[in-house]
Every structure is written in structure tokens, then in C-alpha cells.
Amino acid sequence: MVTKAIPKVTAWSYSRWNDHSGNDGCPQRFKWTHLDKSYLKAHPIVKGPALVRGTAIHKLAEDYVAAARAPAMSTELMLFKEEFAMLRKVKAIPEGKMQFDNMWRPLTDWFEPRVWLRTVLDAHYRRKIGKTTQREVVIDYKTGKSLADDLQFHLYGASGLSQWPEVQEVEVQIWYTDQGVLAPEKPLVYGREELPEMQKAWEKRIIPMLTDKRFSPRPGAYCRYCNFSKSKGGPCSF
Hints:
This protein is α+β, with helices and mostly antiparallel strands. The chain has eight helices and six strands; from the N terminus they run αααααββββαββαα. The chain has helices spanning 14-21, 27-35, 38-42, 49-66, 81-89, 150-163, 195-205, 207-211, and strands spanning 93-100, 106-107, 117-129, 133-142, 169-176, 181-191. It has a six-stranded mixed β-sheet with strand order 2-1-3-4-5-6, with helices on both faces. Strand 5 and strand 6 form a beta hairpin. It is globular, with a radius of gyration of 19 Å. It starts with 13 loop residues before the first helix and ends in a 27-residue tail after the last helix. The relative contact order is 0.16.
């Protein structure tokens, strides 16, 4: 019997790393989701109401910021009415995609074979701090009660500093659109002098994912929600 080889992980993102190695990550679930998708083809995952709603609200925000003329503000965005108006005023860029090779050098094509890291920003804009400091502000929208991981902030900072060598700082913001909460409370700013150590930290952090050959299951409380779980008729033994 010939065993099908598992594809090697050559490109990653925060969500991919989180699926494999995060607090609720599971290497086996990661394999079935991102590498060996044969089960997904036979048993497509139906998106839950929360995910469908979140995707729709992200699209409303993207369209509002990008529109040539400001459309009517949807009720889902009203708690950030002033902030979204500001994004239009400063001509923020919605749905910003960044891709890098394994030397953290920016690439132009999302699907280029050399891509090693992909990062998506819901919006970003540039502002001047004082007379000389250029700061890029990057924003991520979140719906529901999900909380951003500190490491997500960190990767946004590392990606932004790598993408824009002309800026001295990157500020990261999370907008919780359902609660009207902007996090963190104090501005989270990463300086250019921090970039080498930030890059090294991520290069070390992703080693287990990039070198994994077994993709063993990591059972936990989150198994009850997993579409691959035994209780849901999936292929997993847990």
C-alpha cells in the first residue's frame, strides 16, 4: 500500500500558524484544513451564522471606506461612525494585502511561488508624528466576542515594518465593531529598531509548523466544536 505524502508547509499566515500552534490549535486539524483537503471536498464545512455575519460586516466596512462617495452608514458600523468617517477623510486603504519571501522582502503577487508569509489588513493609513516621524496605522475589525491575540498585534507590526521601510513606526489597532471598543487602550506602536528581533521571534515561532511531519492530533476542550471530531462523524479519533 502506497501512503500518500503530506504536502510540506511552505507558506504561512497568522491564521495558519494559529490553527497549527495557537492555544486552540491542532496539527491534525491543520493538515486536513490546509494541506490534505480530500475530506473537505467530500464533506464541505457549512459556515455558521457568526462567520457569515462577520464576513458580511467586513465587506460593509470595506465598501464604505473604498466608496467614491460615502454611502449610508450601516447599523452594524454605527458604533465606529466617527472612526470610519476618519478613514475616508485620510483616504485609508481597505483590504490591504502583503506578501513576503523568507527574507521578509515584499513581493508583488499574492500567489507567487516564492511567497512565504501572507498578511491581510482590514485597513491602513499613514500619519505624521511630530515633524519627521512617519507612522503607518493598521486596523483589524472584529465582530462578536472574539479577542485578538497579542501575537496577532505583533505580526501586524512586523509585517508593516517589513512592507514599508520608509516608515519609522507601525501602530496596531483592533476595532470591536459590536462593542464599540478600540483596543488596546493605549496606542500600541512598534518602532523600526524592534524589527530584527520581531522577525527572529516569528522565524523561531513557526519552526514546529514548517517542520511538522506527523501532524498529530492535540485533543482539548475545543474538540467539541471541530468539524473533524468523531462526535460529528469526522475522521478524527477524538
